[in-house]
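name: query_chain
kind: protein
chains: 1
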Amino acid sequence: MNVLSPQELRTLHQEWQAAGRRYAEQRRKVIEHIRELMEIHGIRDVDLVMETGRVRSRQAYMHPETKESWSGWGQKPRWLVEACKTQPLEMFAVQASA
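structure:
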């Protein structure tokens, strides 16, 4: 088993931290670019959810007055069923801001 000196351990730790920072910055830039493309093409986060049929842990629909929400999973809540009798489902889509 190789034993690292304290200096080697510090150096390795600094390299590991620098790699983490580079990864985080690269990821931030990719997300920024994706958001720019989505804006250009008029695509909202909720549109992606509707297209794939998958919902992550964020709400997809919200009642404008009561602020009740529905993630898109499971049966539609009563408030949304009633509201959709007079308005389309898309009227309650939440435009996520993350």
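note: The first strand starts at residue 61 and ends at 62.
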